[in-house]
Amino acid sequence: MAVSGLARLATSAPAAIYPVVGKDGLAAVEDLSLHPAVSLQPTPRHASVLLVSGEIRRGDHPALRRLHDQLPHPRATLWWRTTPAPGFPQAENVEGDVARAVELVWRQLMTGERRSEDNLLPDEPPAAWRGKGDHGQGGEGMMGGKPYGRPMAMTDEDQRDGLALDAYTACFGPFLSVLPPGLLLELTLQGDVVQSAKVLRAPFAQAVADEPLRRVARLLRPLGLAGAAERFQRTAAAQTGDLKILDRALRWSGALHAIPPGLGEIAGEDIRASLRRWWEQAQGIASPASLGDGRLVDLLPGLEWSEAILVANSFEYDRLLRLCPPDREDDGDQEDCS
Amino acid sequence: MEVKDLAFFVLAASAVWTGWRVFRVDSMVRASFSLMLSFIAVGLIMLLLAAPYIGIATVFMMAVEMMVMALFMVMFMMNPAGLNPMWMVHQHRLAAATGFITFAALTIAVLLSDLPGNPVDPAKPVIHDLGVELLGNSMLIFETAGITLLATMVGTVILSSRSGRYGPADEGSLPPPLTPGGRPAGRVPEDEE
Amino acid sequence: MSAAVPIIVLFYVLGVGAWLAAALDRAALKLMAGRPLAAATMAEPWRQGDLHLVRQRIWTERPDAMNWLLAPALYLILAAVGMSVVPFAPGFVVADLDAGIVLWGACEALTVVVVFLHGWSANAPLPLIGAYRYVAIGLSAMLLSMFVLIAAALPAESLAVSAIVESQASVWNVVRQPPGLLLFLMLGLSLTLRGPFDYADASDLAGGTSAEDSGPARAAWQAARLAMLVSVSAMTSAVFLGGYHGPWLPGPVWMLVKMAGVLAALVGATHMLARLPPARMLTLLWTVLLPLAFLVLALVGAEVLLWK
Predict the structure, then answer these.
(1) Where is the domain boundary, B64, B86, B108?
(2) Is A178 close to C271, i.e. CB distance below 8 A?
(3) Contact C273 A176 (CB under 8 A)
(4) Does the complex come out with an ipTM higher than 0.85?
(5) How many domains does chain B have?
(6) What is the pTM of this model?
(7) pLDDT in tens, C116-141
(8) Closest Cα of chain B to C103: distance in Å?
(9) pLDDT in tens, A81-109
(10) Do A141 and B90 touch (CB under 8 A)?
């Protein structure tokens, strides 16, 4: 039985989770990620368990439904620190030891004891073909029309070197792992450069545990330092640890030098300075500073994708909320980014 | 028929077929890389002709060139439009006529010329000889061509870039005056005098 | 000796090397994260790979299915072809080409194409951005490696990898041109999408070109990346670390030891060094590292002229 042998071996791997973080759910998910029996995945395609942690806005339910269907079979959904929302029929609520619950669900999924959850949405293109051409193309010439609801590419003004490239507008969030949870951005990109940004929904408030060490970890992750970030998180969760090792990991990685000077500067403090200040705060050298506010959307245009991600992850949560006033009123029912 | 002959026919057929696919596929990226495959087949034929350096260098150069070409296409038509079907030909009557005439001319040229029939001795250091030729008798030609191409590329980038020496090019960049408050320095076009 | 033996050995080394590289990668991550290391780390790659195999492969809306399927296979083939010119002992090589390092260069160039195709074909924004910016960095790093390889070939006066290894019988190239080794290791990171040169499958893109991969496709892509890492380590050992040359031990053993060392160094760099934003990296590549590569080439040229 080769298949059951495979399944048995797969069961012994850590449970692959995609966390959907809601209000006040971030610190708990970060602490869960330290558990050896689970492994947090950066994208739903790599996960088998969808873990909703904390309360989710009603307006985010359509996005969550789409996200649910992106998990490969076999899959399961667990709601933790909140109750399952209507419209998620096979969801299960978790109380108490979440790591154990995840492990159990994972094992049942892998051995086939638990049925994989069905799609919540019909598996069909969001828009029908509306091309015009008789050769399969969108329009009458080489291109044009609006095939599958998407307009064909058109060049747009550029702000850097005058090279007019295609502008591609899309929504990113609200549960994209590289952005603060809940933040829904509409970005217009030229290549990997952000031309304009709009905040459609603000990030969730995270009342608990926004210690400097956690903030450092959140900034190290997009720099490709997953291991070091985990060590910072672990120290933050245990509230004790050898700060010398952390100091070495931070300095030798060149993280401070990798961040361009002047990036994400508000009121005279750029990301590099923030990172340094957080690290000094964690060591007890510096005290928290209260800094001026601006708008996140003013910081992003002209930045390259990875710089934009660094900027989005470079603020304390209470400050980030002040930086992200939604650009339009959210009525909660509107389907975003279709 | 030897293995080499068979390899030649297979490679030649795949060069033609992938070249034809360039015009039949419905995406720019596929078209670019079909062209790359066609060139790779030609590069491998070079290998059969005992020109290993030129053959492999063709593969190498074409991979880089087609990559840059595909990237520029994506720059101008970012996802998702690139994967929406496109019709990859335009002015096809003119193109087909030109292609046919060129093909006929080249075929006639090949058939009429007296092709040499002396196989290369496998022990001959062909790469060494090529190096000596490139940096010996033919050095002036190749270096002139190389420097000209480089100067063209640098010049194109400078001419097309927005940031000029005296500010953004589309905001009327002018050199500073030689005396305070005077006319901008440098040559004044005749029609503006 | 049958011509099939080197081919079998090549695939064997690629396979075992890929597993070793995956285990080292897990171990380095745990070390950095401060997790306890256990012997079970060696088995983890199997569990992970196996996990992918039991999961469903998902297709996105209107993907370029052919290229999505082909990309991992081509990546793996390029790793094998690139390694085929590396000798493991005198005369023990799959293809002893006169233009061996040019073939390796062609594999580098085609790797950029394959990674681009992998990101392009999923028809999704994050993989496409990964593919897009990888081309900018990957092509620059590859250009640089050409000068580095030519500098390594100069003392041998040949483009054949076996001749380059032979030329290091007395002095290894790493002694002659230490910056060359560093620059080539950087290329290795770029070719295998790792650490500070991981612009394709990066963490700031939630997985980049493999963000939409699931199931067997993901296992195949990861395996191909690891195979390319082994291939890079073989090339580095042959061109800069004297290949099978070394005292006391037999040649092939030296070769394997050196490969393992290079693997460990590359895996370590993956987890220890921060990734620069692409614009900053591109500036560094063109204004600092490329002139450095030129300088190395000129110095080696002068050395060969004066002392040979």
Answers:
(1) B86
(2) no
(3) no
(4) yes
(5) 2
(6) 0.90
(7) 999 988 888 888 889 989 999 999 99
(8) 6
(9) 888 888 787 778 888 788 888 888 888 88
(10) yes
